[in-house]
Amino acid sequence: xxxxxxxxxxxxxxxxxxxxxxxxxxxxxxxxxxxxxxxxxxxxxxxxxxxxxxxxxxxxxxxxxxxxxxxxxxxxxxxxxxxxxxxxxxxxxxxxxxxxxxxxxxxxxxxxxxxxxxxxxxxxxxxxxxxxxxxxxxxxxxxxxxxxxxxxxxxxxxxxxxxxxxxxxxxxxxxxxxxxxxxxxxxxxxxxxxxxxxxxxxxxxxxxxxxxxxxxxxxxxxxxxxxxxxxxxxxxxxxxxxxxxxxxxxxxxxxxxxxxxxxxxxxxxxxxxxxxxxxxxxxxxxxxxxxxxxxxxxxxxxxxxxxxxxxxxxxxxxxxxxxxxxxxxxxxxxxxxxxxxxxxxxxxxxxxxxxxxxxxxxxxxxxxxxxxxxxxxxxxxxxxxx
Length: 386
Prior knowledge:
- This protein has helices at 16-26, 28-33, 49-61, 70-73, 77-83, 106-114, 130-143, 208-223, 240-247, 262-279, 281-289, 347-350, 353-356, 358-367, 373-376, and strands at 36-38, 126-128, 149-158, 161-162, 171-173, 178-181, 184-188, 191-196, 228-233, 252-257, 301-310, 320-329, 332-340, 377-379.
- With 386 residues, the protein is α+β, with helices and mostly antiparallel strands.
- The strands form 3 sheets. Strands 3, 7, 8, 9, 10, 11, 12, 13 and 14 form a 9-stranded mixed sheet that branches.
């Protein structure tokens, strides 16, 4: 009896077989390969472009972020099978030193990525076309939005991508307290429509308008001009050029956070009397009778909403609709604001409780902000019962 515990070729990445089937069904890597120009001489090519793209993309999906990881992964027959290699053991490689290595190593994959930035007649012969890649991924994202959506909500956000070395474009970001990139994202529910890598030495809303124009055009191409599009983002995206462009587009609207200031707080002050009255009406009546300048401090939590018309002193080109939340939390005042161009008397808004009034806009649309298909792709139809 002979017992062998060497195990042979083993892999812990069996779950990626599901990714292979998904890619085969979606043909994503195959279409992505069409977004590149390959200037290599085909007779000498061992690693086809679609196989290299699958190797890198599936590696990222499996958690192998470093190209260096592929010096070990290149011998994995399971990954080779997932990438579409027929010779999963690498026995048919032309060079003796490559026998047993069915996939590309770190140097070959590195030349693929560097070729996106420059073409070298000797080493970097694969050229990426960013505009084609961008268009493909955007079209795929828009194609995943439910077809019968009557109102589509787009969530824009920026977040940090921490850096741990001296990468190109490395800057310190005071808000996040470290060196990072500052990518820009746009989601429709849990569907990613936009992911743009940016350095951190910029305004968080930088590039949003350019991205929004492309996203809106892609949505219009699929859904037509009548679908409603609502842009939702925090106060970091409350920029006049973004709001002005949206206001000029038919059936496109925005709901944005608005940073509070002394003028806004003064305008919202009367609503705090009503909020306090919800918690202790008798005490509030006594304070009013005594001529108090502000409502008394009351325990508990309650909120009221107020409609305001507001314009900044310099940065906005017009007056806009602002919704203020006069909230008292454990006795402390907590004013919050959003700005929107959705008209109070818009017939389409009355069909959805989330847009019908100030409370709905703040609580059901803005505050929840949950990136789920149910809250960001609303069907056309009658307003649900309250």
